Amino acid sequence: MALITKAIRGTQDVLPAESYKWQHVEQTALAIARDYGFREMRAPVFEHTELFQRSVGETTDVVQKEMYTFNDKGGRSITLRPEGTAGMARVLLEHGLQNEPLPVKVSYITSCYRYEKPQAGRLREFHQFGVECFGAAAPQADAEVIALARTILNELGVTGVALHINSIGCPECRAKYHAALKAYFEGRKDDLCETCRGRLDRNPMRILDCKSPVCSEIAAGAPVMLDYLCDDCRAHFDTVKACLSEAEIEYEIDTRIVRGLDYYTRTVFEFVSDALGAQSTVCGGGRYDGLIDELGGPHLPSLGFGMGLERLMLILEAKGAQFPTPPRCEVYLVSMGDKAAQRCFAIATRLRDGGVSVECDTVGRSLKAQMKYADKIGARYTIVVGDNELESGLAQLKNMETGETDEIALDDSLYTTLYTKSLDRQLADMTDLFGAVAE
Ligand code: ATP
Ligand code: MG
Prior knowledge:
Elements: H1 16-35, E1 39-40, E2 46-48, H2 49-56, H3 61-66, E3 68-71, E4 77-80, H4 85-94, E5 104-113, E6 125-134, H5 139-155, E7 161-167, H6 171-186, H7 194-202, H8 213-220, H9 231-246, E8 252-253, E9 265-273, E10 281-287, H10 291-294, E11 302-308, H11 309-318, E12 331-335, H12 338-353, E13 358-360, H13 367-376, E14 381-385, H14 387-392, E15 394-399, E16 405-409, H15 412-438
Parallel strand pairs: 1-5, 7-8, 12-13, 12-14
Antiparallel strand pairs: 2-4, 3-4, 5-6, 6-11, 7-9, 9-10, 10-11, 14-15, 15-16
Helix pairs in contact: 1-5, 5-9
This protein binds adenosine-5'-triphosphate (ATP) and magnesium ion.
């Protein structure tokens, strides 16, 4: 076999044997978000490049180095979304959702594209679960969004994750801080990486986010934003902390968090795992009170987070977290001969219409091979149908686990029997699930 090509570097395939884990994670996140009042919103995978330049920010790594940008055949500059928020904000404004009762709370699952050096937990195509809460200025909104991320991680069985929070203030108090930072970094200018030297004038805070070892070491001694917060930003941050404490949500203050995107203001936070090595942040978010104005909309204080699903998966695997087992095939219809195969297909179709998981032969296997296959896919029951069964209208329903058999008529009663078995099974699974939740 000589394949003409392979997957693009930094992308990851999800195989059928693994996809149920992804479905579990995505459905759990969306369902919990729904309980918190967030409804799913979807946006295209690409947008006009200026959307990201403007919202993510010209001085960020994402815009400077990581975007997949190209000209389409009409000559427009197009970018594959590097993150979810900008697209959500664009959809909000384009459809005037900000005129609905506020806040507008949305959730999403998206693929994101960044030209980064691929390594464990760092891909060129990755996926995020995210939420945005548009039009909520109160510190309670910050606590709510943080609590949501925490509930999702807890519900999925993620352990060893710490919540780090910080405040990066508003443009007013940040101006003073920028001046102090600039003065500090000027002193070490020659040691900074080239990119950071360029940032010194335009956005010295970005240097705090640089991944180069030398810059990180210099950044460790830099002044911290918390010492420069204005009264309003300080009061906001104090209330966020008080809300978290009263709800018994543990957090650490981490003055090094500045977040990689320019639009953040005030509260920023990360959930950091002890299982991920260098790529330790599984969820990052914060408040972006100026973003909507920046995009040409009204002043609409807002906030959100993005959770990296590949990193989340790595943690779940590392911690041996349990995933609910995917539903198994209820009945395998074993057929002998063309007439029986046709009859089996008709029975299967009617059972499937009734919501029963059924399989029958589609590759022309022998009786023995079909039985073996039914066993392999974990079918709970088999029914063998051949000329004899067609003639008598009776067949054997075999319980594959116990080996017990029951006679079953190939008439309407068959559907009632199997619908009931399938429903009983689903009920038992649900009882198990609730039992596990109640424990
Ligand atoms: P990092 O500091 O690790 O580069 P970031 O600050 O660039 O992360 P965000 O833009 O805040 O990340 O994205 C939110 C989340 O998306 C991250 O916390 C992470 O879990 C995930 N993420 C970001 N970049 C990647 C990537 N290249 N591959 C896989 N997951 C990623
Ligand atoms: Mg990054």
